Amino acid sequence: MVIEPRMRGFICLTSHPKGCEKNVINQIEYIKSKGSIDGPKNVLVIGASTGFGLASRITSAFGSNASTIGVFFEKPPQEGKTASPGWYNSVAFQEQAKKAGLYAKSINGDAFSDEIKNKTIALIKADLGKIDLVIYSLASPVRVHPVTGVTHRSILKPIGNTYTNKTVDFHTGIVSTISIDPCSEEEINNTVAVMGGEDWEMWMDALVKADALSNDAMTVAYSYIGPSLTEAVYRKGTIGKAKDHLEATAFKISDKLKSLNAKAYVSVNKALVTQASSAIPVIPLYISLLYKTMKEKGIHEGCIEQIQRLFKERLYTGNPIPTDDKGRIRIDDWEMREDVQSKIAETWLLAETETLPEIGDLQGYKADFLNLFGFGFPGINYEEDVNENLEMEGLQ
Ligand code: NAI
Hints:
The protein is α/β, with parallel strands linked by helices. It has a single domain, classed as NAD(P)-binding Rossmann-like Domain (Rossmann fold), CATH 3.40.50. The protein is 41% helix and 16% strand. The chain binds 1,4-dihydronicotinamide adenine dinucleotide. Residues 47-53, 71-74, 86, 110-112, 137-140, 222-224, 269, 271-272, 274-277 line the site of 1,4-dihydronicotinamide adenine dinucleotide. 1,4-dihydronicotinamide adenine dinucleotide (NAI) is lined by residues 47-53, 71-74, 86, 110-112, 137-140, 222-224, 269, 271-272, 274-277.
């Protein structure tokens, strides 16, 4: 079929298999161009099909020759209906790994469930024996708790007071003011249940119990802090509570892993256009100003550049891993630079529908958003008939 982007709100209902493949190949080429990393050999990536998780899988495999098992929750294609982009990304990753002679297998299902944990661990035991790096990179709006059966839904709201600020509809470029009412206690608890650290801890407990972790293994989950501009809706809002919980869980997991000399870390990453971040009010406006500033300064990075730097300059340097005073790895260091943030604070005040095309990088935002779904890549003929019904090599 001929596949065109069909936008609905902050999501795109279609995705392009050839474009997703291009996206994966570009990331692989980038990693190869940066030279090898003396990194992990057997890697489990939970949330491996898009965003930071996909970049982590690519960096492990093509930077460090690692065998990878990827877990994700994606919609397979049906005749006449495209798959979700993470499906096509994973099809492409599997193909490229096979060509390169790298072990890669994938599991599509709900990572919060016992069933998928058991399936993944059985695969590790059968094929790899033990894992030396576990990346935890889930971003989900919902979690069915495996013990209670309760469905928790995460929500993005401020705590305590109504938050009013500017935002942009990145499709139309219209800047407007939004107000978000504060959350209830129950909404905080639900968001922590979905995006906090409980499931990460459950994964690590299950891996330890099955004796599927190597000595000196590492596990890394991803977090975000950001500037005071977005604090009320992000770091001091419901999602921030979940990130506080995730960060506290790293210490809990490290305690449990002591006998293996293994450790859990949280890496604080840069704000980037992904399916998860596009859904957060205010953040798209912040990102478009951030992109403009960081591109002007020559320090802009996407997911793959971030994760390459995380592996090469933080996790696998041969030296102790540098952390901040709260024990977190910081790869958001360039985003948080004083000169970057003061420029954004200045442009934020000026940001209006008329000024944004000049002072922000709305085009860059839109381009990245389209790229997430495999659209807008040069060299791809989007008028061409393509097979949407792709099967995935290595799918378990
Ligand atoms: P994303 O939406 O690109 O990727 C989410 C991944 O989780 C996908 O592989 C998806 O298939 C998987 N997933 C979702 N629900 C699942 C389930 N129930 N079972 C199995 N897999 C499931 O998200 P992104 O942005 O890469 O986020 C990953 C982590 O990085 C999150 O913790 C996020 O908070 C964090 N982060 C994101 C930043 C951003 O600006 N995008 C900045 C800093 C941290």
